[in-house]
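Our platform keeps sequence and structure together, in a single record for each protein. This encoding replaces a full spatial description with a residue-level series of whole-number codes. We quote a single record here, exactly as it is kept in our systems:
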Amino acid sequence: MPAKSPNPVILKRLEALRTQLRDHDYRYYVLAQPRISDQQYDTLMRELIELEKTYPEFIAPDSPSQRVGGEPTKEFPTVTHAVPMLSLSNTYNEEEVRSFDERVHSLLGKEPVRYVCELKFDGVAISLLYYNGVFVRGATRGDGTQGDEITQNLKTIRSIPLRLRGEKKGFDEIEVRGEVLMDREDFRKMNEERELAGEKTFVNPRNSSAGTLKLQDPKIVATRPLKFFSYYLRTEDAPLSSHYENLKILREFGFPISEHARLCKTLGEVIDYWKEWEERREDLPYDIDGIVVKVDSLRQQERLGAISKSPRWAIAFKFAARQATTVLKDITLQVGRVGTMTPVAELEPVFVGGSTVSRATLHNEDYIKELDIRIGDTVTVEKGGDVIPKVSGVIKEKRKPGAKPFSMPGTCPECGSKIFRSADEAHYYCENSECPAQIRARIGHFAHRGAMDIEGLGEAIVDQLVELGFIQNYADLYELHKQKKKLVDLDRWGEKSATNLLEAIEESKKKPFSRVLFAVGIRHVGSGVAQLIVNNIGSMEKFIATPQAELERIQGVGPRIAESVHRFFNDKHNLKLVKRLQDAGLQMEEKKKRVIIQSPFTGKTVVLTGTLSSMSRDEAKEKIERLGGKVTSTVSSNTDYVIVGVDAGSKLDKAKKLGVKTLDETAFSKMLK
């Protein structure tokens, strides 16, 4: 029976919600001028999602609800760019830029030339295609001629419009190019969260952005703090004459553009722009590594053409490395928000890269030993895109007699707890969950969606509650109801906001023990490891009492995680917090999944590939594990079975090559019975 069509009132409401949410996305992610609170935005989004669930035939591809991420993809199709995405020639000094200007003028004759100067983002170049104002395809730069189609991943980036704003007459089909990147602060917070969850951290914002765009699960991409800046517009439908004017058109269409782009009439103005941003680069929230200089006239660009893989009409004017020498007065320890101990160089103030530097990072103990850095040394300081510069070398000829090698202290400078370093890690850590330097991050992790999922307890609220002294650790959350009157009286709170937060905290008590175990923030115990531990050890009481050697024997745990658990529960502050959570009524026990001892899957290693019609992959994994099997993601000579569904990928080919037994869905179902 066909679905019942909604009445005109419903259709009108659907479109109104989409229009409102698009406008709020634009104001928040592009203009940075939000008009409503996050809670009000979430209310509108929930209403839209519910209506679209009721009337799925009216879900639009450009609906704001479609940003959450679709199903994982097996591979990225190849896209051929209509116009190659050329790379730019690099230059590092004024003389080479003057040579570029001379070449431009020699090819154009006596025509006047204007340049557009833009910041050179340290991100990942992408191409976006729009038909009739709607985003239909996105791709990576690739080799410049061909790239990977990553449309679903790009849809999750909220600063990329799914539908163009403003007047689009004469722009039926357009291509927009730009850069995907992360702000330094967002990158830092993401790494802290990953570190606290025991996951691998990223090296820098650019590598993180590039890696994220190549992930095959858009839902994971949607959780990463990616942003987008546009800098190129192409269309066959309307006459375009000026790159600088094109930037204005992009802004009218709802794309974020750099507010720092500048039209320069002379080469002197170009050089002034370069010098200005070499000094001001740390003022920006994101990394840049130079400026881009482009001929403004599109007609002149066409006449100039390209040579090899670079255009003749543009050049990247890079920033030179900035270094200075000074004296290292002392080495202190800075405690990160997740307990990471970072040695910091206390320096005689020195002017470098446009500002005076008195502190610089020394990374870790190994770095100090490798360079043989000692207090009193004359050192080289290098300033890059990071907020804190680094010490990059030592001038040993100037070392004073008697200078002693540095050694790490045994306790945390913030709380006095013992610090430790695992054999396979570069940093020392403080495991005290109540360490003043870690309070906010640990509470934020505890309330995170994947942990206790306390709605409304975002970073700003956590900061406010800690600053006012209402909470000093995550256990304090469950006594916050005693201060409801004070909460109500806070600026911009009121009865409803206070009640909603306290109800969300109370609701979190129903979360299973595996969530609690993940939430308390044991290093290397992510959500998957937490569930694994719960499956083998049913309660917090037994978990705390389990010897380290016994934990190591649990498949999937191993020595590193077992050592981390042992250290966590060896700290009296952490034991006290766990006891308070138990007294507050959180779930500290979970029934272990029943495992049938003898079955065709007992002790077998299984890999799933393709789509099964009778169950999801997670359901199949759970059934195999209940029958005593282990599910892995990679086919090897140790694999016993490969379960083959529809559209099986390269895992099937590898299984055949290695002679691993394969089972279709019918045979798999029989074995399950």
Q: What stands out?
A: The chain has five domains: 8-68, 90-188+198-318, 322-398, 431-592, 605-672. The chain has a mean pLDDT of 86. The domain at 605-672 is CATH 3.40.50.10190 (Rossmann fold). The first strand starts at residue 78 and ends at 80.
